[in-house]
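Sample A.
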Amino acid sequence: MDFAASDAPLQASEQAKAPGVLTIPESIGGITISYNLPGIDKGLKLTGPVIAQIFMGNITMWNDPAIANLNSGVNLPAQKILIAHRADGSGTTYAFTDYLSKVYPQWKTDVGQGKVVPWPVGTGAPGNAGVANIIKTTPYACGYVELAYAYPKQHDICICSKC
């Protein structure tokens, strides 16, 4: 017997290609918004609609009023937000875009939800490790990764500014 796992359920077309496959709903792993903001030592507050607008390219600067208003007292840099996203099909992208579709209707209409989507902006990388590497090595980058890639004790890639 073989087992596999993903954060995305099989679509009808995928199930048709694998007769006899049993899909057992389990759980979706935690997904984080991670960023590399030199000089910012505490976490930023971001709402779902603000995150969606960042990944759509509608909010392009770290000091945009939509971010600044949520983070009173934080000296946000006047720097362009550099988006990193998955280039490959993934359950992480499926879950993240499902969330964005629910919190920001324009995302659902313009980009959609799935394992692969037509990203309006940003640089793609393979796997969570690829996205985490872009964020870690690129000042002012922002992306989404599975939780294990955001904590150095749980994985060998750390994207915090303290390592």
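Sample B.
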Amino acid sequence: MPRLSRLTRVVMIAGLLWGLAAPASAEVGVGAQIGTLGLQAMAVAPLNRHFSARLGLGVLPSWSFNADVSDLTYDFQMHLYTLGAFLDWHPGASGFRFSGGLIFNSHDIKSRVTPDPNQTFNIGGASFTGAQLGTLDAKADFNKLAPYLGIGYNGAFRQVGNLFFTFELGVMFWGAPDVSLTASNPDSVPGLRDSLRKEESDLESKLDFLQYYPVAAVGVTWTF
């Protein structure tokens, strides 16, 4: 059987969750948002005047950021796929909402550095030439399942009309990073493997700000 792509698996899970969790009401809304989770497709249905259930499927094709450690700049490229299930509370049956939920994410966060072979670098408290290091590959992993809290606005089902502007501000709590760092030939250079382990800790500290991933998005919802 051919291996399913990461995005295909996320879409299949989204369809299954919506089939199980969607209310029996005939009212439903679909929409799109763009923001820090990339391009998102949304589905929302009212539970009552004050609560709605919502699913969001997001794709962030590419986002880059860097971290400077030991005179080396790690340029990370991040690809992110998310599937979120949310409960929205609309106080006073208004469009304003408080949201809580869980976000399943599939991410790929990597960097490759090729140090100048003629320079010396301090890696984990020890000195190595760029030639000894060769190519350094760094990978950062976060929790696959992350709680989410946010606020926003969506007047769907609570105001007259079919097309509504939406916005969202929140935080995805996907935990501290777990960084792995490898060199081209770590066993051929005495002490390099142990120094890489120490360097991983420094990189984790540099990326610690990402454990609280900011979520901001704007978009539209159409109800029918």
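B remarks: Confidence is low (pLDDT under 50) at residues 20-25. The CA atoms of residues 23 and 137 lie 47 Å apart.
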